[in-house]
Amino acid sequence: MQKALAPEISTWPDAEPQLIGSRCTDCTATTFPAQPRCPRCSGANTSETLLPRRGTVVGKAFVPFGVGLVELTDDTGPVIRVEGRLTENDPAKLQFGMDVELTMIPLTTDEDDPDNPVEIVTFAFQPA
After folding, report:
1. Which one-letter DSSP state was computed for residue 51?
2. Which of 2, 26, 40, 77 has the fewest Cβ atoms surrounding its Cβ within 10 A?
């Protein structure tokens, strides 16, 4: 059995899970994770929004080591930048601009009930 570390931040266990953010209806700022108030304009007119599954690794002075800043994009362009784990941690195989996609990976096992251990999963980005 599996369960999410933070079930409120994604649509997992959907077959193609998405991260859940929020979008301000006043200034259109997008945040992750979802927030009740907009960090840009301080407005309270926010609504949950599903974030794109695909993006690219971005940054200049950052040396990737299994964590990256990923700019999620949809058909209209960039939506938000999310810092997250990368499934690839070999710096020689990582590059800026590479396409990645959201996935869910095992993080730990909850063994409160030894007869029914539960695998805890979290989000990460894998090469697309």
Report:
1. P
2. 77
Task: Tell me the C-alpha distance between 66 and 81, whole Å.
Answer: 16
Q: In this predicted model, what pLDDT tens digit does every residue of 57-81 receive, in sequence order?
A: 886 655 555 888 999 999 999 999 9
Q: What type of residue sits at position 77?
A: G
pLDDT tens-digit map of 46-63: 999 999 999 998 866 555
- Tokens 């949950």 identify what position? 48
**Alpha carbon 8 to chain centroid distance?**
12
Closest CA to 68 of 93, 30, 96, 92: 96
- The CA angle 95-105-29, to the nearest 5 degrees, is 65
What is residue 79's three-state secondary structure? strand
Instruction: Report yes or no: 4 and 11 within 8 Å, Cβ to Cβ.
Output: no
